[in-house]
Amino acid sequence: MPAAIPAPERLRVPHQSGAASQVRRWLRDSLPNLPDEVRDDLLVCATELVSNAVRHARPLSGGDVCVTYELGPTDVEVRVIDGGSRTHPHVCAVNLDSAHGRGMFIVSKLSTDWGARTLGDGTQEVWARIPVR
C-alpha cells in the first residue's frame, strides 16, 4: 500500500488586522526545522497574502480567513482562502513612495510560483510556493 499523503495544516484567523501576526507565530511554531532564510521568506509571503485578504477581500462565512501550508521535498506552499473580492490579486508596478501596492511584487520575488483562483463557492484562494534550499 502506498504511503498516505499528509493533509495540509490549517489555521483559521479572524478577518482583522492582527491576523498576520497570528499566522506568523503559527508558522514559526509549526515549522521549527526550516532553514532560517526559508522560514523568513515564508513568513513574509504569508504576511502579505493574509494582509491582502483582510484589506481587499470579504471574510469567509465565519468571519475569518483560512490559512494552510504544505511542506514538500522542494518547497513549502502557503495558501490563504477568503470570502472573495471584486478584484484579483496582481503584481503592481513598484512605487517606492507609495505606502501600499508592493505586497504581491514581494511575493513574486520570494516565491518560485504564486497564483489566485476563485473557487466554485465564490471564495478565493491565493497561494505561493517558497523554495526549500
TrEMBL record:
Answer whether the UniProt record assigns the keyword NAD to this protein. Answer: no
- Entry's Gene3D superfamilies? Histidine kinase-like ATPase, C-terminal domain
Q: Which Pfam families match?
A: HATPase_c_2
UniProt entry keywords in alphabetical sequence: ATP-binding, Kinase, Nucleotide-binding, Serine/threonine-protein kinase, Transferase
- Keyword Nucleotidyltransferase attached: no
Q: Where is the Histidine kinase/HSP90-like ATPase domain?
A: 19-129
Q: Which InterPro entries match?
A: Anti-sigma-factor_SerPK (IPR050267), HATPase_C_sf (IPR036890), HATPase_dom (IPR003594)
GO molecular function per UniProt = ATP binding
- The protein's name is ATP-binding protein
